[in-house]
Design brief:
Shape: flat
Number of helices: 3
Number of domains: 1
Bound molecules: zinc ion
Radius of gyration: 16 Å
Structural class: alpha+beta
Strand content: 15-25%
Strand order of the largest sheet: 1-2-3
Length: 111
């Protein structure tokens, strides 16, 4: 549907989100939590301004509550539990305490 130009802009927006995620991870590793929040906010802003959904692989690591980039082992805790084919993952933001729940279902036909 979209023109070549809008597809191109979408790609650029997503690329920028990945760069900001990386910068956020580095900020967290250096203990710069305020910076990590700024990067999380910027990712959300790009998503809104460009009307591009944040890819799931990025969204998972942005706290819904405080926008910080979550890095497991640093400012986030990840717990997962398998129940049959469903993998339940709880990511806790250690900055604000918010718990994010995700469920992944394996849908391989051979299982
Ligand atoms: Zn948080």
């Amino acid at each position: 549907m979209g023109s070549l130009l809008s597809r191109l802009l979408r790609d650029i927006a997503i690329q920028r989100m990945y760069i900001l995620l990386e910068l956020g991870v580095t900020a967290v590793e250096r203990g710069r939590i305020e910076y990590a929040k700024r990067y999380g906010e910027l990712i959300k802003r790009i998503s809104m301004r460009c009307r591009v959904d944040i890819p799931r692989s990025i969204k998972r690591w942005i706290c819904k509550n405080c926008n910080v980039i979550m890095v497991p082992g640093s400012n986030a805790r990840v717990r997962s539990r398998r129940k049959g084919k469903t993998l339940r993952v709880v990511t806790t933001c250690l900055v604000c305490g918010w718990m994010h729940r995700y469920e992944f279902t394996r849908c391989r036909k051979s299982d």
